[in-house]
From TrEMBL:
<protein>
    <submittedName>
        <fullName>Cytochrome C oxidase subunit I</fullName>
    </submittedName>
</protein>
<dbReference type="InterPro" id="IPR036249">
    <property type="entry name" value="Thioredoxin-like_sf"/>
</dbReference>
Length: 184
């Protein structure tokens, strides 16, 4: 009788141990780091568009924004981020119009012509580096210029991709977001 009671109690004891003692790893399906709490685009964050007109970055709400931050000179790391962002956008097929690539430049110098020709669909906006640093979080040991950020259509900064990212994993995250989100 004792043996039958032990056999009946074994699944309950095993489930208790599995849930409370041996915590399973996993359950994470996203590559980028989720920003918690989300940070809305500051209403006071002014940028200068390609024509030199000031505008609020918050005016771009309504579509998904993939943002890179760097200097106008655009070194190799900057060009790589812009390339990855363009390629991720292109691979979204019919959903690509919901995604806007934005390059926030931390100075107002001229953009090299080779960059303008290579990335004509990227919004190239100049912004105050101090305001960007206050809004965009970085990982320890990195700067805001090392990451690619994702802003949802409601204007909330919601995801940060790591330094030297894997573009196919970024594509996976963006594809899931566009598939399951009806906004933007």
């Amino acid at each position: 009788m004792l043996l039958v009671a032990l056999l009946c109690a074994a699944p309950v004891v095993a489930s208790y141990l599995a849930y409370y003692v041996f915590k399973p790893a996993g359950g994470k399906t996203n590559y980028g780091a989720l920003i918690d709490p989300q940070r809305p685009i500051p209403e006071t964050l002014l940028v200068t568009d390609e024509a030199g007109h000031p505008m609020r970055l918050a005016s771009l709400r309504g579509r998904w924004l993939m943002i890179a931050v760097d200097r106008s000179a655009c070194d190799e790391a900057c060009a790589t981020k812009l390339y990855f962002m363009r390629q991720v956008r292109v691979t979204q097929a019919g959903e690509r119009e919901r995604l806007v690539t934005v390059w926030l430049r931390t100075d107002s110098n001229a953009v090299p012509d080779v960059i303008k020709r290579a990335y004509p669909d990227t919004r190239m906006l100049a912004a105050d580096p101090a305001a960007l640093a206050a809004w965009l979080p970085g990982e320890s040991g990195t700067q805001d210029t090392d990451h690619i950020y994702l802003v949802d259509p409601n204007g909330n900064l919601m995801m940060r991709f790591p330094k030297n990212p894997n573009p196919s994993k970024i594509k996976g995250d963006v594809t899931k977001l566009l598939k399951w989100s009806s906004i933007g």
